[in-house]
Write a structure and sequence with these properties.
The protein contains 14 helices and no strands. The chain is mainly alpha-helical and 412 residues long. The protein folds into 3 domains: 65 residues; 172 residues, Four Helix Bundle (Hemerythrin (Met), subunit A); 156 residues, no CATH class. The radius of gyration is 22 Å and the shape is globular. The two termini are 30 Å apart.
Length: 412
């Protein structure tokens, strides 16, 4: 996505795409074989080989994104830039890419020590261990930062998708750059000095969340203006504006999920941090473990649904199919995430002796929600597979036009 959205040489684009595709296929296939079919370490070695290729592709991407090349300077007054016309959005892409490379090494160093002073473990099992080894801390930090950086890069991709520009974009890009750097340094500091690491991460998260809010405001405003212009509504009512915001579920949903995340991830996480010693550490360890596991799985699930909605748009879903697919993903995924949020915090409002009816209900709702989303995904992938064998299908069009479309700005 990045290579198709951010200007770069065609040769760089092709090389990066080819390299990372080769690497991730090797890692994916060999990783699955190693994990589920016998633990043959030949496949583990091939998995690491694929990861190394992916890392090399990341280095190529960082080089291609280098923002201080004069040919990529921007003269657009509606885009954030330095006094020297260096594009701040491109700097943000570069910062996230560089932080990802450094954070990948952060985990890779630990992985290289398996069998030589380090054993596999689940991060949730260490929550109440008073002391942790540097290698364990590195893995915990690695888990935090990689998911965070995926979210940060996705935010920038969505900004390109909706053609983020104007005052809000000029405010958002410095916040993104600063926040990403602070979060990354906070995670990297977990080994030398753990006590302040989470505080630094929280400080860095705040500007990123503000940048995300600015993007949501811009995107919804653009969707509303586009709808009103298409319908030639000169004096829109509140209902007209609301319909304008939600009329395209793919673009509305991708931004809505960023808002919904704050209710089921951010607020829950802040509450857990504030009341950690007073409430959560009083619970049995199993309950705190469930809360942490649910917390991170919801965040990764929300990121996945945003990517899915974005992919459905660039894949070419139109008309009623676009409407049905979009609303299925939004409604059923949010049903599942809300159910899991209740499940992970259930001890706040129900005792262990009386919890079973609630547990049965939320688990069923979660299964229904995620199952429906997976069925929608299967239908989308089936359509794409059938299209692959058409002479003039979407695959052919995408091969001939590799750049992704960008939303045109609508002013009113």
């Amino acid at each position: 996505m990045v290579t198709a959205l951010v200007p770069m040489d065609e040769n760089e684009q092709v090389t990066i795409n080819g390299t990372i595709t080769f690497g991730y296929i090797i890692s994916m296939v060999c990783g699955i074989i190693f994990g589920y079919f016998g633990h043959n370490y030949v496949f583990h070695g091939l998995f690491i080989f694929g990861q190394a290729i992916i890392f090399f592709a990341g280095l190529l991407l960082a080089k291609a994104l280098w923002p201080w090349q004069k040919r990529y300077h921007t003269a657009d007054p509606e885009k954030a830039s330095t006094k020297g016309k260096v594009d701040l959005e491109r700097i943000a892409f570069f910062v996230v890419a560089a932080a990802t490379l450094g954070s990948a090494l952060f985990g890779a160093v630990t992985g290289s020590m398996w069998g030589n002073g380090h054993e596999a473990f689940l991060a949730e099992d260490l929550i109440r261990e008073p002391t942790k080894t540097p290698l364990q801390l590195a893995i915990i930090g690695h888990l935090h930062i990689m998911l965070t950086l995926i979210a940060a890069m996705l935010l920038l991709i969505l900004g390109k998708w909706v053609n983020f520009r104007g005052k809000l974009q000029k405010w958002a890009m410095p916040l993104m750059i600063t926040g990403t750097i602070i979060i990354t340094l906070g995670v990297w500091s977990i080994i030398p000095y753990q006590p302040t690491a989470h505080l630094i991460i929280n400080v860095g998260s705040f500007p990123v969340l503000i940048a995300a809010l600015l993007l949501v405001i811009f995107g919804w405003r653009q969707q509303m203006r586009k709808y009103l212009a298409e319908k030639a509504i000169a004096k829109p009512t509140f209902g007209d504006r609301l319909i304008g915001i939600i009329h395209d579920p793919l673009k509305f949903g991708a931004l809505w999920q960023m808002v919904f995340m704050n209710f089921v991830v951010t607020l829950v996480g802040i509450f857990m941090a504030v009341k950690l010693d007073e409430i959560f550490r009083v619970w049995p360890a199993r309950e705190e473990r469930i809360a942490l596991t649910g917390h991170w799985h919801i965040l990764s699930g929300i990121i996945a649904t945003i990517i899915l909605l974005y992919y459905a748009d660039i894949a070419g879903l139109k008309g009623k199919v676009r409407q049905v697919f979009g609303w299925i993903i939004i409604l059923f995924s949010d049903l599942a995430f809300a159910a899991v949020s209740v499940f992970e915090t259930k001890r706040l409002f129900v005792s262990e002796a009386a919890q079973q009816p609630l547990v049965n209900t939320v688990v069923l709702l979660g299964d229904i929600g995620l199952g429906t989303v997976l069925l929608a995904l299967a239908a989308l992938m089936g359509w794409r597979l059938i299209d692959l064998f058409k002479k003039k299908g979407r695959w052919t069009h995408e091969t001939e036009h590799p750049s992704l479309p960008v939303e045109e700005e609508v002013k009113q």
